[in-house]
Amino acid sequence: MSVNPMAYEAQFFGFTPQTCMLRVYIAFQDYLFEMMLVVESVILKKLDGFPDCKISPFQIRKSTEKFLLFMKEHFDKLFSKMEEVLLQLVLNIPKNVLLPEDKVHEQYPYSKEQFQVLQDEINQLQQQYRAEASAGQALRAELEEQKAVRAELEKILQWFDGLENICREHGTGNFKESFAFLTQSSKKLQDVLKDVEEKSKKIKKHD
């Protein structure tokens, strides 16, 4: 069998020419075996009509196998020549023939170097796309985080609005001044608390 891959022919036919020839070879070989079995059975039936014949079925089988081997050797030689002719003249696409689906290569020919440049450019674009997709995902996550922070800020603003309304209801006109006053008072209380703690420590040390 031919070792040429014949990939272009496989693209056109949908199967490799070598596969086709192998199937033809197997079909012919099976037919040859079946034919020899038929011939053997006919000979055995004919011998039944001659009781005095000294040829045994074993001898007939041996002769049949010998004749089958002879036929197979000649068949292999003939099939080898037939295969060579079919692969060259029937199942072969000439070098100057271009399949319809490959016409675009004739219109836009590219060398191996040009193809490699295009391949490198495609790989670079794919990497850029992955980087942009990752950055977009990070931006979407940040946007979701900002939405959550904004929601919390809106809650705080609503709380300050409610606190300002309460201050107005209790006679405090300016919420900012009230808040500043509360901050200063809180700081004074912290200073007093700190002073008390220091004096308490001194008393404990003295005791």
TrEMBL record:
Its main location: nucleus. Belongs to the mis12 family. InterPro entries: Centromere_Mis12. It comes from the Eukaryota. The lineage of its organism: Eukaryota, Metazoa, Chordata, Craniata, Vertebrata. It is found in: Chromosome, Centromere, Kinetochore. This is Protein MIS12 homolog. GO terms for biological process: cell division; kinetochore assembly; mitotic sister chromatid segregation. It comes from Fregata magnificens.
